[in-house]
């Protein structure tokens, strides 16, 4: 599940992590409308469920690799599966997951309710998303201010259909994880991700749910570009996760 506006040539690099090992890949592209209007994401989840159930039903195992906005759609799919009674013909097949550059903050509307760093100013997930939208170097200061102002007005006007849905989604993400081998990729300098929040979340998941979960945090990298900046280490950690998953599958 890709990041926003991901180009095919970039997606191919991630697909090859799997195809080179003889695995098949289903690319699920993300669009901003899925995030800006949550009902779109739920409709999208239903369509994806139909594909997984009817067109890939010959597969015994699935693995989900998400990047940035793709993580939001993945979480929505899992919420949709729960609403349907979590049909085992789909949800029961997922054996692992990767969260690359997931948007994460703390406080109201955040992945965690409190900042894990004492004295640190809390930056909510929505604020981080907006910050990421305006951080493009080519945008003028006037354009950045306009995007920030419009975003605040939009979320205030649509709170019941957007902000409250995001809060429910983040609560589900925090409290009902997929209990399968999981790996996070993040960096300290990513304006859209508070790495300390994810590190704390990993601790919580290990303690409260007891499944294999780890995180790699780089001091310097770029949102949804960790594979480009840290290719060798990314591939090594990715390979180690797949080995863990394959060994689990072979034991079943």
TrEMBL record:
Coiled coil spans: none
Lineage top rank: taxon: Eukaryota
Molecular function (Gene Ontology), one example: serine hydrolase activity
Annotated SUPFAM superfamilies:
alpha/beta-Hydrolases
Fetch the InterPro entries from UniProt. Answer: AB_hydrolase_fold (IPR029058), DUF829_TMEM53 (IPR008547)
Question: What PANTHER family would the database entry show?
Answer: LD15586P (PTHR20908), SI:DKEY-5I3.5 (PTHR20908:SF4)
Protein name stated in the entry: Williams-Beuren syndrome chromosomal region 27 protein-like
């Amino acid at each position: 599940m890709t990041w926003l506006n991901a180009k095919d040539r970039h997606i191919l690099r991630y697909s090859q992590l799997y195809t080179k090992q003889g695995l098949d890949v289903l690319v699920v592209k993300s669009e901003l409308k899925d995030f800006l209007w949550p009902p779109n994401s739920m409709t999208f989840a239903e369509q994806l469920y139909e594909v997984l159930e009817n067109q890939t039903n010959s597969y015994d195992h699935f693995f989900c690799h998400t990047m940035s906005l793709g993580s939001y759609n993945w979480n929505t799919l899992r919420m949709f599966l729960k609403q349907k009674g979590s049909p085992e013909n789909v949800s029961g097949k997922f054996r692992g997951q990767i969260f690359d550059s997931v948007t994460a903050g703390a406080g109201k509307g955040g992945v965690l309710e409190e900042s894990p760093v004492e004295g640190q100013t809390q930056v909510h997930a929505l604020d981080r998303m907006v910050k990421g939208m305006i951080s493009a170097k080519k945008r003028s200061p006037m354009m950045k201010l306009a995007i920030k102002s419009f975003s605040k007005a939009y979320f205030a006007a649509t709170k019941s259909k957007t902000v409250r849905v995001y809060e429910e989604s983040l609560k589900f993400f925090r409290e009902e994880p997929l209990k399968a081998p999981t790996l996070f990729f993040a960096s300290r300098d990513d304006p859209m991700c508070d790495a300390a929040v994810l590190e704390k979340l990993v601790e919580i998941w290990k303690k409260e749910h007891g499944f294999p979960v780890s995180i790699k945090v780089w001091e310097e990298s770029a949102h949804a570009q960790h594979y480009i900046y840290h290719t060798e280490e990314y591939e090594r950690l990715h390979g180690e996760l797949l080995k863990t998953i394959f060994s689990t599958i072979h034991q079943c």
